[in-house]
Amino acid sequence: AAIVEHVFNVEDVVVKPLCQEQMIPSVNRSLPGPTINVREGDTLVVHVINNSTYNITIHWHGVFQRNSPWMDGANMITQCPIQPGYNFTYRFDITGQEGTLLWHAHVVNLRATLHGAIIIRPRSGRPYPFPKPYKEVPIIFAQWWNVDLAVLQLRPAPIADAFLINGLAGDTYSCSKNRMHNLKVVQGKTYLLRIINAALNTHLFFKIANHNVTVVAIDAAYTTPYVSDVMILTPGQTVDALLTADQPIGLYYMTISAYISAHPIVPVPTDRTINGLIVYEGAALNTSPAKTTMPEGMNQISTAHRFSSNITSLVGGPHWTPVPRHVDEKMFITMGLGLDPCPLGTKCIGPLGQRYAGSLNNRTFAIPQTLSLQEAYFHNISGIYTDDFPNQPPLKFDYTNFEVRGDNEYKMLFPERKTSVKKLKFNSTVELIVQNTGIITSESHPMHLHGFNFYVLGYGFGNYDPINDARKLNLVNPQMRNTVGVPPGGWVVLRFIANNPGAWMFHCHMDAHLPYGIIMAFIVQNGPTPETSLQPPPSNLPQCSRDPKIYES
Ligand code: C2O
């Protein structure tokens, strides 16, 4: 195994993906940022030098961080941010996973431009569990705003001006017509597309005109080969898919478009479809490309559901492990949007003059302000968090058809704001039934767990039925992943083994939902040996500044 070393110089740069110049924070002056190439078993060392004007952390999304919980880069959960003018070196092993992941800033909004690919190939001499592709191509989706990032602090976040494929907005906009991602292919060859949705807030459909793809991995876990003409990725998800250039020589659009899934608060426009291009070698460049038809209306929900729920893990493949049958800790978690008191001196647009808040089991997560959660836990410092995150919501009701009926239900509109965590015994098997609710709105939320992959045992619509739905769970070859879209008005059942001591976030990966507090955290307690215990933090772990204002999630 090798040591792979990178320098991430974070600095502001002027870019113009769309119509006007905009100053953004970047890594090494590029958008998207640098691609990290490693092999499974390598050690990754990244020196982050913060020459920007922002407080930052870098999170290695989906990397297990076995025995390196201080390197997770979760702002105020595992570290205080790296302040302007400071630096920090992340150092960790990448083991037990292969495929595509992403790195991104883990401070609200900054992920918009601070992100890039992590490509984990098999150890040398080990093959892929699929035919070797002719070439591999990272394809990174992002959302773009022609405004200063500070404007994105608004709740709800403003609608994006465009999407980007590998930093380019393409020909949907006249001002970016000539800046479109081009993938040159040779007829008959097969390409491995390493697709990443780094968009802040939008699930994206992805389609290539006249071509099917074969999905071979999701979230850096191999899948049974799955053939599809369309894909959907929530923010934070990745798909590795084989594309064979098996069509007549020509030009073909690759298109991304937003999944709109019933969101009455923010009117998501339908016209933010953008294109990249597949260019066959020998094609006439002045012909018009073959077009895609993207899923629309109710068709979106069924397409998303089909793609998300049909994929299965590659039983017996590299790093595959069977589902544990025994559950030690079972949690039922409702997610909802509620209302928070309006801070003095601000304008709030909630229906009762409040501002929107998010919740899990009716708790709105408050990000610690003076010390990271993991440091508070390790040093036994009280007052930073409470370990009373409940295994159930305070009320049972018809989650998918919520209307205020009485005082009790009304309480579910006003979640309790605190930093509450759930402690887990080392090596316990945890089952999470995550129920989306119709409190105020129903949309698909992409729930992401740090530090682990979970098995997705089932997806469904309506209220989870603990008898009938439980019977249908897939315990044989369920997906293994780190981010799952909980269907609008529906549920997912997840299972994971808490075998990595430390503090791990579980949160909605829509960036706009971080300040809303759709977050909770697990603290996995120590195992019996030093190797299974949380070690002291590195001596150069960034310290918090005395001005807590800057840590707003
Ligand atoms: Cu990709 Cu907590 O994040």
Bound molecules: CU-O-CU linkage
Uncertain runs with pLDDT below 50, 5 residues or more?
A: 548-553
The general outline is: globular
- Number of beta strands: 32
Strand order of the largest sheet: 10-9-12-17-14-15
What fold name stands as the CATH topology of the largest domain? Answer: Immunoglobulin-like
Describe this entry's structure for a reader.
With 553 residues, the protein is mainly beta. It folds into 3 domains: 1-126, Immunoglobulin-like, CATH 2.60.40; 129-312, Immunoglobulin-like; 329-551, Immunoglobulin-like. 5% of the residues lie in helices and 38% in strands. The chain has 4 helices and 32 strands. It has helices at residues 298-310, 373-378, 407-411, 468-471; strands at 3-18, 20-27, 36-39, 43-50, 58-61, 87-93, 99-105, 115-121, 135-144, 162-165, 182-185, 190-197, 204-208, 213-218, 221-228, 230-233, 238-244, 251-258, 274-280, 329-340, 355-360, 363-365, 416-418, 421-424, 428-436, 445-449, 454-461, 479-481, 483-486, 490-498, 502-508, 519-524. The strands form 7 sheets. A 6-stranded mixed β-sheet has the order 10-9-12-17-14-15, with no helix packed on it. Strands 21-20-25-30-27-28 form a 6-stranded mixed β-sheet, with no helix packed on it. Strand 1 and strand 2 (20-27) form a beta hairpin. Residues 548-553 have low confidence and may be disordered. The structure holds CU-O-CU linkage. Residues 59, 61, 74, 104, 106, 236, 448, 450, 505, 507, 509 line the site of CU-O-CU linkage.
